[in-house]
């Protein structure tokens, strides 16, 4: 018979075998020490599927049959991070893989090039994007030899990872299905030729989000559709001074990923409007969505492929949207507000509109610039509300000039009309009200009459 210690040894052996079978591979976690010395390129490919959603499996770059979880009849999405000046792993990477697998039965491959991206010398990391792209191209070619379709491949690249996706796509003659660039890096790429950065010929469909174009991101359009969140430069809720530490540098840039994650959760759609500039968008000059047909203006994010056909026809579309400062980010309802006054002299000022529905209140403050109101001239405003109100019981409006020392003005409103931009509801109107400066006026709106104004 066996001695107790022999049982123990057998038990330990079994436990070791189980642990070996279940060992999860993880993203390379480096520290500032590595980045300071500098790292040379090494690429790890971490596979996640619905069969191993939270436990990554390391892929061989050459022997695909060694990994039975990799099923090439499924679509494959590659997730490619950017510059890692501190060597840490990206905070968003697990979230993104989970959401991708929740949405579709995919192979999700996280391209871990932290050895190469972790470097105090940014120029070295930029150089390494080409080497990592060559590595990834070779792997995708092997996938193709084993029966994978290039059109079912989607590359999601963040910052430097966006340009790396572009290099991979160009190496494969633009035959990859889709590239998504999340705030593609600006430094060292601005002003370069299309072949030296991401551009719309790198895949059959290229969608790009800009959130930090005045600092770490790229300013010009790069894809078939480019989304500029809050104008593409400064994101609400991000620190505006250097005293807030590292988040001052990375908050706007990183917001691109958090907005994309939000689009995947499908909590609420973020509608984007085609426009040539952010100020025109805020002025309500770009609210026409007719060219996109019955689907209306494109919705930002993961599901923008529903507009792919029309966007490819249009060639290049630049769109804008605004967000709240924190999750769920989406500003859910947008209205056109048309105001006609009958004051003798022109008035300049700002308008705040509130919509009330059984105790719920939605607010829109139109204060990006002072608006000019003129006698018998319709002034169009674009109001984006922080909440969605299904039916409007009452409306409150406040007018202010922003002048503290001047006498208080009145705005004599002949008609105000609110038109919901998504729903086909009949516009709501109110006739003949006087807005005293800094005094909120509340009224019950009525369906608008077709008038001669």
Automatic annotation (TrEMBL):
Q: Where is the signal peptide?
A: 1-21
**InterPro entries named among the record's database cross-references:** AB_hydrolase_fold, Lipase, Lipase_LIPH, Lipase_N, TAG_lipase
Which reaction is catalysed here? 1-hexadecanoyl-2-(9Z-octadecenoyl)-sn-glycero-3-phosphate + H2O = 2-(9Z-octadecenoyl)-sn-glycero-3-phosphate + hexadecanoate + H(+)
Which Gene3D superfamilies does this one have?
alpha/beta hydrolase (3.40.50.1820)
Query: Which residues does UniProt mark as catalytic?
Result: 159, 183, 253
Question: Lipase domain spans which residues?
Answer: 39-329
Task: Establish whether keyword Calcium is in the entry.
Answer: yes
What Pfam families does the annotation carry?
Lipase
Q: Which residues are listed for Ca(2+) binding in this entry?
A: 197, 199, 202
- State a GO cellular component annotated for this protein: extracellular space
Hydrolase in keyword set: yes
Q: Which GO terms describe its molecular function?
A: carboxylic ester hydrolase activity; heparin binding; metal ion binding; phospholipase activity
Where it sits in the cell: the answer is:
Cell membrane; Secreted
State the superkingdom: Eukaryota
Q: Which UniProt keywords apply?
A: Calcium, Cell membrane, Disulfide bond, Glycoprotein, Hydrolase, Lipid degradation, Lipid metabolism, Membrane, Metal-binding, Secreted, Signal
According to its record, how does it sit in the membrane? Peripheral membrane protein
Q: What's a single GO BP term from this record?
A: phosphatidic acid biosynthetic process
Protein's job = Hydrolyzes specifically phosphatidic acid (PA) to produce 2-acyl lysophosphatidic acid (LPA; a potent bioactive lipid mediator) and fatty acid. Does not hydrolyze other phospholipids, like phosphatidylserine (PS), phosphatidylcholine (PC) and phosphatidylethanolamine (PE) or triacylglycerol (TG).
- Which family does the entry's similarity section mention? Belongs to the AB hydrolase superfamily. Lipase family.
Instruction: Please give the name of this protein.
Output: Lipase, member Ia
What species does this protein belong to?
A: Echeneis naucrates
Gene that encodes the chain: liph
């Amino acid at each position: 018979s066996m001695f107790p210690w022999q049982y123990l040894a057998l038990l330990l052996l079994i436990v070791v075998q189980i642990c070996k079978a279940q060992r999860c591979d993880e993203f390379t976690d480096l520290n500032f020490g590595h980045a300071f010395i500098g790292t040379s390129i090494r690429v790890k490919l971490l596979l996640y599927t619905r069969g191993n959603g939270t436990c990554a499996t390391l892929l061989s770059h050459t022997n695909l049959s060694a990994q039975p979880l990799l099923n090439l009849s499924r679509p494959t999405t590659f997730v490619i991070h950017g510059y890692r000046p501190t060597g840490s792993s990206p905070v968003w990477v697990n979230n993104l893989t989970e959401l991708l697998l929740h949405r579709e039965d995919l192979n999700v491959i996280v391209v871990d090039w932290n050895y190469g991206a972790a470097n105090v010398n940014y120029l070295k990391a930029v150089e390494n994007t080409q080497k990592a792209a060559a590595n990834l191209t070779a792997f995708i070619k092997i996938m193709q030899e084993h029966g994978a379709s290039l059109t079912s491949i989607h590359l999601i690249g963040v910052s430097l990872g966006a340009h790396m996706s572009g290099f991979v796509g160009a190496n494969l003659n633009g035959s990859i299905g889709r590239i998504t660039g999340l705030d593609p890096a600006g430094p060292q790429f601005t002003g370069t030729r299309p072949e030296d950065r991401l551009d719309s010929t790198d895949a059959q469909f290229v969608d790009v989000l800009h959130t930090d174009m005045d600092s770490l991101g790229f300013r010009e359009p790069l894809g078939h559709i480019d989304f500029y969140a809050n104008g593409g430069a400064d994101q609400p809720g991000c620190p505006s001074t250097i005293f807030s530490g590292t988040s001052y540098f990375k908050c706007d840039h990183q917001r691109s990923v958090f907005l994309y994650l939000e689009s995947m959760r499908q909590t609420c759609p973020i509608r984007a409007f085609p426009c040539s500039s952010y100020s025109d968008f805020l002025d309500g000059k770009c609210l026409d969505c007719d060219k996109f047909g019955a689907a209306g203006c494109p919705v930002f994010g993961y599901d923008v492929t529903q507009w792919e056909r029309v966007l490819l026809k249009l060639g290049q579309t630049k769109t804008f949207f605004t967000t709240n400062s924190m999750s769920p980010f989406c500003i859910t309802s947008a209205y056109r507000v048309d105001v006609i006054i009958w004051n003798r002299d022109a008035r300049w000022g700002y308008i705040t509109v509130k919509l009330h529905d059984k105790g719920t209140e939605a607010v829109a403050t139109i204060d990006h610039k002072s608006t000019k109101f003129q006698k018998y001239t319709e002034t169009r405003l674009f109001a984006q509300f922080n909440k969605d109100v299904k039916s409007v019981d009452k409306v409150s409006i406040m007018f202010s000039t922003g002048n503290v020392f001047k006498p208080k003005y009145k705005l004599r409103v002949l008609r105000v009309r609110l038109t919901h931009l998504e729903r086909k509801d009949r516009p709501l109107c109110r006739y003949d009200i006087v807005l005293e400066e800094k005094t909120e006026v509340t009224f019950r709106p009525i369906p608008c009459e077709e008038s001669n104004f």
